[in-house]
Design goal:
37% strand, 5 helices, five-stranded mixed sheet, Alpha-Beta Plaits, 233 residues, five-stranded antiparallel sheet, single chain
Length: 233
Amino acid sequence: MKNSWAIILGVSVIIAFGLWGWFFQQSRQVQQTVRVVGYGTEEFNSDIVKWTVSFSERVSLTGTQEGYKTMARKMENFRKLWDQTGIQTSEFKVFPVNVNREYGQGGHSGYTLDQRIYIISNEIEKVEQLAIDPIVFVDGGVTFDNSTMEFFSSKIEDIKKQLLGKATQNAFERAEEITSTTDLKIDKLISARAGVFQITEPYSTEVAGYGIHNTSSARKNIKVTVSAEFTLK
């Protein structure tokens, strides 16, 4: 009986060491992988425009009170003229009047009062035409010191998600191309890292390590890379 137990124990130890050796050998084997960089790009149109304008009034050392009144009249005229355009807005933001000291050869010579407004709308073409040709405001006695337009998309997050999928698919296709002349096949995606998004005007070659979000053009191009690693079988 004792001999039987000894034999069983011996066999068990041999099997255990054999299994341990097999697992150890498997863990020592280097898993074959391939790393590639996928690329995705797409053009899209903005559906939101932000138009920012400012106007000012210069006054003498004692003219600040009258200057505020003049600025109030300009703002009233601007609102009336804007209402006449019939353009729908999602936001109409008016900032307080700023007062800045002016200096000349003799020292403090007066003040400049300035005020900024921004308007957000989905009617891009109408706002763009108005910004390019603001004659309706000029005829109404309102001239701008600054006028800038910025274009955005309300669907940008969805666009980014779709583009990441395209870039990952492109990485898979590139990996298949790399292994096409071998006996190896692409198996599983084990890691993926997305680069920064480059949102530029069309046909731009501009890139930046921290990413770009160009807002000066209504038509945009978005690009992204995905660094992916696949196992081989």
